[in-house]
UniProtKB/TrEMBL annotation:
One of its GO terms (cellular component) is plasma membrane. This is Transporter family-2 protein. It holds the Pfam family DMT_YdcZ. Keywords: Membrane, Transmembrane, Transmembrane helix. The chain crosses the membrane at residues 39-56, 68-86, 92-118, 130-148. It comes from the Bacteria.
Length: 150
């Protein structure tokens, strides 16, 4: 399966935005609390989403309701923001937080593929998947264990 270069660029830029978001939320945690660092971006995002919906007035693709577990994404997002806001202000710093977060995402996504979670088709990891996982974990460990030494 070939991915269009534009989609790869968008995904890469999204990673940069995610890093900026973690830094900003970590800064909010320094001046407030972990709950405050999660509350501000969620309220801001809600207001922005409502404004965009009001302007664009998109039509629903399907009149079907999503599964109930899909509504829990906000809870996971709130905890993710609070936990990353806490870890970015430790010796892990921004790069360690992002690296370990990426490693956790890849591990969980492979687990979800293997088990067929969330309605995904079951898929065994390929040698390429496992090699990529090993490289990501190695890079994360290098950043965490060697990142602070001069």
């Amino acid at each position: 399966m070939t991915t269009a270069p534009l989609y790869s660029l968008i995904a890469f830029l999204t990673g940069g935005l995610l890093t900026l978001m973690v830094l900003t939320n970590g800064t909010l945690a320094v001046y407030g609390t972990l709950l405050f660092s999660s509350w501000v971006p969620h309220v801001t995002g809600t207001v922005a989403a409502l404004a965009i919906l009001a302007v664009l007035k998109p039509k629903r693709a399907k009149p079907l309701r999503p599964p109930l577990w899909a509504y829990l994404a906000g809870v996971g997002g709130a905890f993710t923001v609070m936990l990353t806001s806490a870890t970015v202000n430790t010796s892990l710093a921004l790069s360690g937080t992002i690296a370990l977060g990426l490693a956790g995402q890849v591990v969980f996504s492979l687990f979800a593929d293997i088990r067929g979670l969330f309605g995904l088709p079951k898929k065994r990891p390929s040698a390429r998947d496992l090699t990529a996982l090993g490289m990501i974990l190695s890079g994360a460990l290098l950043l965490v264990l060697m990142g602070g030494s001069q």
